[in-house]
Amino acid sequence: MAEVFQAIGAATALSSTNVFNSKRVLFSYRRSVSERKTSVCTLRSDGSLFSGLSSRGRKAEPLTAVATKTESSTASVASKPGHELLLYEALREGLEEEMEKDPTVCVIGEDVGHYGGSYKVTKGLAKKYGDLRVLDTPIAENSFTGMAIGAAMTGLRPIIEGMNMGFLLLAFNQISNNCGMLHYTSGGQFTIPAVIRGPGGVGRQLGPEHSQCLESYFLAIPGIQMVACSTPYNAKGLMKAAIRSENPVILFEHVLLYNLKERIPDEEYVLNLEEAEMVRPGKQVTILTYSRMRHSVLLAAKTLVNKGYDPEIIDIRSLKPFDLYTIGNSVKKTRRVLIVEECMQTGGIGASLAAAIYKNFFYELDDAIVCLSSKDVPTGYAGSLEEWTLVQEADIVTAVEDFFKPKELRRNSGS
Question: Which residue of 201, 208, 285, 396 has the fewest C-beta atoms within 10 A of its own C-beta?
Answer without folding.
Answer: 208
